[in-house]
Amino acid sequence: MRKSTRRTCRFIFRVVTFFMCLAVLVSLIQVPSLASKKEDVLENYIDRTFSVILGRTASNEDFRLWYPNLKKGSATAVSMIDQLTESSEYQAKGLSTEQTVDVLYRSMLGHEADFEGREYWLRLLSGGVSKTVLVHTIAGTDEFKTFCANNTVKPGDVTITEERDMNPEMTLAVAKMCKSLTGREPQAEELNTWISQLTGNQAGLANFLLRFMKSDEFTNLGYDREITVQVVFESMLERTPTEQEKAEFIDILSHGVSMDFVVDRIAKTQEFSDLCAGKGILPGNIELSEPRDMHYELTGFIARFYEKLAGHVATADELNDGIGKVLSGEVKVTKMLSEVLESPESQETLASNDDFLNAVYEVLYGTAPEGEAIEGYRIGLEHGITRSHVLEEITKSEAFSEKMKELGIETSEEKQVPEKIIALTFDDGPYTPVTTRILDALKPYDAHATFFVVGNRVNPYSESIIRAVNQNCEIANHTWNHTTLTRISGDAVAQQMNDCDNAVFNLAGVHTRVMRPVGGSYSGTVSANVGRPMIIWSVDTNDWKYRNAQHVIDEILNNARDGDIILMHDLYETTAEAVEYVVPKLIEKGFTLVTISELAEYKGIDLQAGEAYFSLRG
Prior knowledge:
Layout: H1 2-54, H2 60-72, H3 77-86, H4 88-91, H5 97-109, H6 115-126, H7 131-139, H8 142-150, H9 163-166, H10 168-182, H11 188-199, H12 205-213, H13 216-219, H14 225-237, H15 243-254, H16 259-267, H17 270-279, H18 291-294, H19 296-310, H20 316-328, H21 333-341, H22 344-349, H23 353-365, H24 372-382, H25 387-394, H26 398-406, E1 420-427, H27 432-442, E2 450-453, H28 462-470, E3 474-477, H29 490-508, H30 524-529, E4 534-535, E5 539-540, H31 543-546, H32 549-559, E6 565-569, H33 573-588, E7 591-593, H34 596-603, E8 612-613
Parallel strand pairs: 1-2, 1-6, 1-7, 2-3, 4-8, 5-6
Helix pairs in contact: 1-5, 5-6, 5-7, 10-12, 10-14, 12-16, 14-15, 19-20, 19-23, 21-25, 24-29, 27-28, 27-33, 32-33
């Protein structure tokens, strides 16, 4: 019994031992099988990632590189995806931006992007942001981490290092600006440099744009004004200009200002400030330094008269130099205009007198010329009155002064009254041999005189009248045919005045403003009908009586006083000889030689029609 029991126990032990060994064996068989199953998940992940990114399964060499490193965690899903998408094999595929977005979504999340996500990333990647930003953004999502956990890989991440990726909206703005200005996509290095400057507060967006527009790349494109306005709006405001805005800014550019002014004008708008704020960019502040940009209206005026009067677009140097001289008072606007008109190119551009007058009035007033004054200018120009003289007369008007005030230029300056002023006057002419000598004597000193002409002598000696007007001398009325006015009726007096005046106007285009009765004789009837102030004299040289140069010289030098009106006649050679000596002597004595009208202006005397004036002492 005892022996039988032992046998039974040994049998049971053997059976238990058999099953235990069998269990161990089964467990040994099953563990590798589970491990293999887990390793297959990683293997499948590697194959799928290679297939999505490179379009092929992983090779044995690829597995030897990635499998153990992914398994140990020394490599991550992100590091593998980043390395594969940077490989030459991937670059050779030449995928589009849209395909790149699709590849990254499927390799990192196992599915394609939804419409909104795709559009967002297409906008960023097409605007110069690198794919690193997309990878980094997806890597930070819970969905990606779950996807990696299911595939037994460590997620990982990438570090944003490039300037263009640190502020995607700023990069988009700068890239769009470059594309608008040049028509090309900017390089990554360019974007990094530009964004670095903007984020480092080295410049605002407006300053950056302006610097770019001054580059050779932009200037060599040779855009006209309309295209320039278009690209500036697209670059700064991300839209096309309205027709009204386009017209306004084309006009601004036509004024001759630099791009600094144009960019500054837009940079000061609220629209631009709001756009910059939305992108985290400083708008910038343009510091205008050129005179042409700091005096916009004056710049337009000077640019316009170069274009209209000289036939060429003013250079920046011409504008800056002209504005500086005008504002400093170094050069008068009228002087600058005269210099331009005297240039050969102006003479060629304004071939006819009508061309000249139309251009001058368009420049000065923006309107076509009209009225009797214009007819007088046309007549005078036709007979030899210089354009410079006509321009001087035009710019004496109150309208011109008001126009210049709008431009910040004061033309109605207070005249310095000379200490001693006299008026040399000549009757009964003109007579070219004598009148010419008198004018020759006056010219070196810019001295002026008044010629009381006889109407029927105007046309026979027209060259003397034209020259006198061009030298800013005054042509005055001395009747039509040297008639003593006290002997004729009032109507006849008026006729004498009108006939002489018409002769002068039809030759030189100017009206006579003062008159002298023959012999100085006048009456109430004369006063009532002459229609002009009557200028008599305070020093009578009697040159007609003595015909002696020294006598005339002595009479003038011994008797001349401030405000005197000196009577002579431009008919006698002895008078011309006397004037040639007297003019420099009077200048030496401190006298200023002026016309009757100038003398009255200096002395503040308002000459009245029909009144007789023997001197103008004030």
